[in-house]
Amino acid sequence: MSNLERDPQEIRCATGVGAEAEVLTGREVLTGREVPLGGPRAMTVSRTLPGVRRRMIGAWCFVDAYGPERAVMRVPPHPHTGLQTVSWLIAGEVLHRDSLGTLREVRPGQLNLMTAGRGISHSEESAAGVLHGVQLWVALPGAHRHTSPAFEHHPSLPVLSGSGFEATVVMGSLGGVSSPATAYSPLVGAEVAVDGSCEVPLDLGYEHGLLLLNGEVAELGRGPLTYLPPGLSGVRLSGRGRVLLIGGEPFSEEIVMWWNFVGRSHDEIAAYRKEWMEGEGFGAVEGFDGAPLPAPVLPGIRLKPRGRVRE
């Protein structure tokens, strides 16, 4: 999924934590903001990363949650650099096309993973019906951000079972269970089905985020993303529902994230935008009935590389 905002300004940090987060013994409740995708009749998503203060959780740099609602997804061809897109559905079907020639539908419980690397373009669309899911981006570390673009579809994924929960491991590893999906930094992404009271294992060296997808889990509100700092071996959850768990080693590099590009400088982002608008560097998406998405105008200030937390 693209960032379809027509004026994607850099988010600036206010003094202190502000309204975005409630800090409780290291936990932060990231409330996010509502963003329409594709115009006045578009589906609305809740964007919790990047936020006003916290930009990333591990290498995870973008979290959009949407639905459940009856909607039609129609995202025209658009570019990406320096990241991976992770498409995960709870309900509905989405068709992916990309400039590698991929044509692949994703359904609930399956993973579509696209590695942009040095540059790729893609589109996403669905028929009318109930859609419910999350779209996530993973920032590629410097050593891999110019890798060749690639696409992976994983129709089945491993499951970690414990007392009161089952976790489908989408990316990385959880409790010794590893996803077959390609990851370029130490991280985890999992859908946790909670049924009763449980303790989900965590990696002590990772920071984590928890997002309630459906149902009721006592420790989590509906909508916000709950941040957990490194140093925890597990998290207790109780209730019945599905929870998205993301995490990873704190990302040490500063990045520039603007529109659908992840780079390292203003000039690099400007060059990506120029290439896209001139039809270079990102290939063509065949089969989509419509024009590619034009890039917004760059802001009147220079974009600055920033770390995972805005101080």
Automatic annotation (TrEMBL):
It comes from the Bacteria. It holds the Pfam family Pirin_C. Gene3D superfamilies: Jelly Rolls. InterPro entries: Pirin, Pirin_C_dom, Pirin_N_dom, RmlC-like_jellyroll, RmlC_Cupin_sf. Belongs to the pirin family. SUPFAM superfamilies: RmlC-like cupins. Residues 235-279 form the Pirin C-terminal domain. Residues 46-138 form the Pirin N-terminal domain. This is Pirin family protein.
